[in-house]
Design goal:
Helix 9 packs across helix 21, helix 11 crosses helix 14 and helix 14 runs parallel beside helix 20. The protein is globular, with a radius of gyration of 30 Å. It contains 27 helices and 28 strands. The strands form 9 sheets. Strands 5, 6, 7, 8, 9, 12, 13, 16, 19 and 20 form a 10-stranded mixed sheet that branches.
Length: 951
Amino acid sequence: MTETTSGPARGSRSKGSKASKGLRIERVHTVPGVHPYDEVVWERRDVVMTNWRDGSVNFEQRGVEFPDFWSVNAVNIVTSKYFRGAVGSPGRESSLKQLIDRVVHTYRKAGEDHGYFASPADAEIFDHELTYALLHQVFSFNSPVWFNVGTKQPQQVSACFILSVDDSMESILDWYKEEGMIFKGGSGAGLNLSRIRSSKELLSSGGNASGPVSFMRGADASAGTIKSGGATRRAAKMVVLDVDHPDVEAFIETKVKEEEKVRALRDAGFDMDLGGDDITSVQYQNANNSVRVNDEFMRAVEAGSSFGLRARMTGEVIDEVDAKGLFRKMAEAAWACADPGIQYDDTINHWHTSPESGRITASNPCSEYMHLDNSSCNLASLNLMKFLRDDDQGNQSFDAERFAKVVELVITAMDISICFADFPTQKIGETTRAFRQLGIGYANLGALLMATGHAYDSDGGRALAGAITSLMTGTSYRRSAELAAVVGPYEGYARNADAHKRVMKQHSDANGAAKRVDDLDTPVWAAATETWQDVLRLGDKNGFRNAQASVLAPTGTIGLMMDCDTTGVEPDLALVKFKKLVGGGSMQIVNNTVPKALKRLGYQPEQVEAIVSYIAEHGNVIDAPGLRHEHYEVFDCAMGERAISAMGHVRMMAAAQPFLSGAISKTVNLPESATVEEVEEVYFEGWKLGLKALAIYRDNCKVGQPLSAKKKEEKAKAEPEPEKVVEYRPVRNRLPKGRPGITTSFTVGGAEGYMTANSYPDDGLGEVFLKMSKQGSTLAGMMDAFSIAVSVGLQYGVPLETYVSKFTNMRFEPAGMTDDPDVRMAQSIVDYIFRRLALDFLPFETRSALGIHSAEERQRHLDTGSYEASDDEVDVEGLAQSAPRQLAAPKQTERKVEVPAPKQAHNSTELVEMQLGLNADAPLCFSCGTKMRRAGSCYLCEGCGSTSGCS
């Protein structure tokens, strides 16, 4: 596909002619004389994005131009996130053509200016091929490219940054500043704090050092402040500490202690929800924490021996700990609050291409980018489903040849971007230009595996994933070697040439040793083998243009842009999806991958139709008509009746890791019932299987956790017993025969019920009646008994506020979506009931302290930063506790609530909850209110494209 001064290369357009310096680019998807835009049908659409909680418009731009095959969701995301210019102004972008041209033309010009192309004709082909691939959602650059390239603002193209900090106050303050500038730009950073002296070491003045954990507080506060000043999402950062640091136990315990504080404060009535007013009192919440372990420590864990903690200044052992005990503490902390994750230092540096320039000590926030300190990486991801071919006989194959050509195109573009890119700090700019780290990856692996009839947790699935990853990275380094012949190797290559070539040999050897399984992966392995031979040959001759080539990133927002069913290396979320329709509305559809999988497995059309109909109704394949039990595993998903096991995720990561320059952004989910021993197993097997990093998340470990009964010790004081003890008892204040009331119908997670709340004429709530299920059922009986207990307590003077603080956030089924616009999600029926009662009967100040607000108040907070009404507004519900009532006659009023129909989903996660009757442990999007879904180690909102931490 290229040709340089060293001689003709594969696919040269001018065979036999004398080569000029520069790349020769061949056409793959395009034809001469026809622009890619002219081959598609364009249409105008209106993008109106609303907040489903109250119907308010979050974003509106009408008449935008997109191809007719782009989904509503992809159009909405790109229009709202990536179009530049003020909405409503003449300069605002209004067509996908403008967006793609802004980026592609910038890349083409930079390529021409820096001598990448052999001729203007090659530059034009590059332009057309890049345009076609973006237009047809074959791949996408990471978000900063779409935000910044071709605009007047700094053209930052990287989303991943690694910083460094030394043991000096000047360096620590520089860390705060540099991190803040990166957060201000909407990106994230990671760093290792292990150079900072521990709290067990002395300063030159003679006093004890503060230790890294102390300085983490300042950085955490800075990140939280910048987050709240700039955007609603939390800052994205990673903090790493080496396992031999004397303060490692304090580091492990930081998040655990703070999570205990969260639960205690929430139980006391404080607003501890994400974005709540009181969450800022909790420390260390703006970072992911990871412990960097080495092989020495892991062998000590395996052997049950001791391990030395070393002074930072001298390297001498100043403390001995039981390795297995320390490893256990890590697992207990991760079990309790998902932190810390684990990074395997020796494995990471074994695959390091530039060790003579420094060790790899840290990662970016999502843990996929790992290279030198003060460096960055720009990312791009390919849509794997675009390379799945079906022939006339119904046979499937992965188009390895076309895949490799697209990889070459994308790597060329990514390297060109470094030539014109801006960086947040001078040091990051210098390192990145000297080592030119790239991060090509892919999305839709889970969909590809299912469509080809492979279970995610199977030898065949892992073999295909490994083969594709190997071909991708091998092709990237081959193109990097070809680029080195044209524009030179990276500046740091000469010093690191032997190490770089050693790592290439390691990749090649891993490719040769990998297991071939079936007719789908074997041809891809063969193409990868040939490619790695080219890498070794060309690299030895030319060197390499890039110190790093590939990672597996979360592909959150750009995954939605490409209409991918699955993100990064993740499996499918569920078998039934939520799809928005042109012109408004939505529908539930069975994944298109399901019929493909059934066809691959040999089922006849009528059988496929019956199975798909069953899945549409039940949301799973269990007992589907005609489906063989041995094929159930093909349809296992991340959630649902047949969720993939934790080790299934770990094994998939291990299949891809040997063929990646960097690492993998992925969190291994564990069920709530998982034990600490299972966490230990995951972390230990991650080391054994050669992973570079790993994080776990146990369902519900951060939300709704039951509080342990901790009694405060009281100091006994000897006091003389009084002669006479007067015992005061509460007196029951019964309601009059006629009392005003409100009857509310509600739905929680599909379960319907009625609540009648009756009041004293002048003194607030006095009794509650609940009607659930059929008369005589267990649930109806328990609700009756519960109603009586609460009503009697109210009449004996127990404040409603006490009940609300105790029963809100209680989690049990049924739970999920409600039909109440003020309480969209409920953890249980009890949670809903007391949130509704608080809204109806507690004054604003009281329920606001409990974190309970109406939809109108939450919208006011988004618009003005305050929940409180303006002076000319009257808080009617807030006065309900004490307002006198006129008793003309006993009457009841039924609340009329205008809400969407029951069981309405707003994205795939909510649909899965209703379809399968489970509760996804994911946060709500602060921008649009829908439930997010996991993407790598972050969360992604399908409704508006927002992420919980990564760009």
